Amino acid sequence: GSASVPATGRRRYWEWPPSIWPLIRRSCPLARLHIVGAIGRRMDAPLPEGVDLRGFADDLSLEYAQAAVAITPLRFGSGVKIKLIEGLSFGLPSVATSVGAEGIAAAPSEVLRVEDTAEGFAQGVLDAFDAPDAARRRTEAREFARLHYDQSRVGADIIRDLVQRGLIPAGAGT
To answer: pLDDT of 107-137, one tens digit each?
Structure first.
């Protein structure tokens, strides 16, 4: 697979320990980090070698199709990280910090690896690059997102819960 990583969102996505990218590049000199979205307009420091600012994408599926792994290296924030779910739904195994994975259902480590040290995070990315079972991992990531976050499924689960609690009548929402 391609040794590239899409990163999307606000500036905080790049505020990860600066030791991570050199660890990745040392082991995989051809690795590329694609930063997609508005974050590129906020980048004011020179970027390390191998980091590409892609700007806005008309079709994110093309960006995700070129990637081997999605990353969510947040050090602060709250709530569910939609970009993490988005990457999974496109079939990308993901590496996130514990903050980046907050609010996400428990996932197999082949689907979502949570690492809070520079070494662990870099190794998670490198493992995704080298995974001999990359096609299976992509399928599992996509299926995980579908099972836990598909709009129709989540809506049905909410309605079923409300019916069970007696808050709405049976048959509501169908």
So the answer is: 888 899 999 999 999 999 999 998 889 899 9
* CA dihedral of 156, 158, 162, 163, whole degrees rounded to 10: 20
Distances (CA, A) of 128 to 50, 120, 150: 17, 12, 24
* Predicted TM-score (pTM) of this structure: 0.77
Of 5, 3, 17, the C-alpha closest to 99 is: 17
Tokens 């924030």 found at? 77
* SS3 label, residue 169: coil
* Closest of 88, 126, 97, 112 to residue 1, by C-alpha: 126
Collect all residues with Cβ–Cβ distance below 8 Å to 55 and sequence separation of at least 6: 36, 37, 40, 41
